[in-house]
Amino acid sequence: MIVVRTRRVEEFLGRSLSPDLVAVLGRGAPEGWAVTRTLEGTPVYTAYARSPKTGWGIAFGIPRASVDAPLERSLLAIGAGGVAFAVLALALAALVGRRITAPMATLADAARHFGEGGTMHADGPAGVSEVDDVRQAFVGAAALVQQRAAEAEAAARAKDQFLAVVSHELRTPLNAVYGWARMLQSGQVGEEQMKRALDVIVRQSDAQVQLIDDLLDVSRVISGKMRLDVRPLELTAVVEQALDAVRPAAAAKEIRLESVLDPRTGVVAGDPDRLRQVTWNLLMIAVKFTPSGGRVQARLQRANLHVEIVVSDTGRGIAPDGITAQSAGDGQGATFVVRLPLAFAEPAPGRAARAHPMTDSASAAGARLDDLRVLVVDDDREALDLAVAILAGAGALVRVCASAPEALEALRTWRPDVLVSDIEMPGEDGYTLIRKVRALGAAEGGHTPAVALTAYGRPQDRGLSLTAGYNMHVPKPVDPGEFTAIIASVAQRGTAA
Questions:
Q1: Which of 90, 152, 173, 408 has the least CB density, counted as fewest CB within 10 Å?
Q2: CATH-assigned architecture of domain 361-496
């Protein structure tokens, strides 16, 4: 296929090569010359070269008439003028040939060098305008290819780094949840530790939900505008929560986790969720690089007009020329310091750290759903069991379905007061279900209040649910108290309507 041509480029760009040139290239030689015909039918002398690595080739055609005419005139002069003129004509022909083939050979060498992974430079003018035009075109194309390759490599590195950060941020609170849950399951937690274990599981679950919400806010992630809830706070509770998050990991490696928290550190201005992330990241790194039997210590101390969170370990340490953190060297541990300015205001009472909206006391009590008929649709058996436990515990009469067709039949026959449906289901999804429900008449349950309970939590997902016909979009996970309050609210609106 032709990608560059010096004459009639608009007509021939993208077309196949001439059959003569295809036959010459088919011989397999990396370079050479032959007599061919152009696509216009003009006989030409063709010099060609092909890159063995990329398969791209360059061919230069000089009209045969342009080359042969001087030779023919020279032959006539030889016949008329004798041997002297013949020698002169041959010399001139050789000179002309060199002027034509030399720049062509130079450009072919440059193209071959680029094809082998090198660069392509624009040398001095060749004296043949067509050759100069082609060379400039190839130089520009080579620069563009190199630029795109560099951009692609940078994008790949950024993607890998982003995925690594996301994995680390999500696994940190999950580690605490998983560790304490397994300890509860195996009976390793005594009654005096039960409340603390449950508090850690709920708090770290809230933290993971917050992280997922942040990831879904794509526009702010891309622009670097992360939301901060900055307010006066005391750091003691923040550090204690971070310690609770890493305690199972430290216990698994038999690492002694110590804390020295000065209660007189005062108040700082900051986002408690982000500061908890910073602290648990430092603690997890310390636990990761500290061998079994070692020690990790977290200190909260005041230094002049700053409050410092200091994390030290007895791990293998860091070479002094690798980083600005404090370390005496290999095998002698490392110390990381976070310095925060003091705030001149008192913290909000009873709010050491921001709780997820689902854990607010207003929604914790939930609402009674006595004798309310609720139809729950989800293909996940455990999700159905959880919904039944929550709703039945609030007094509701619950029926469950594992598919959209089954739910549609139950809606007609059982006539629930509220429909709760997942979105992602095999076969017909939740959007298809609610559209079919809304297509029914009122007597068949077409006006039944409906809630989309789904793991799709983006703003556009909420828009899709409401547009399809749901009365409310609730992202998973949902707090039991909040869930029952939502069901009661939707049911009341449906009754009023």
A1: 152
A2: 3-Layer(aba) Sandwich (3.40)
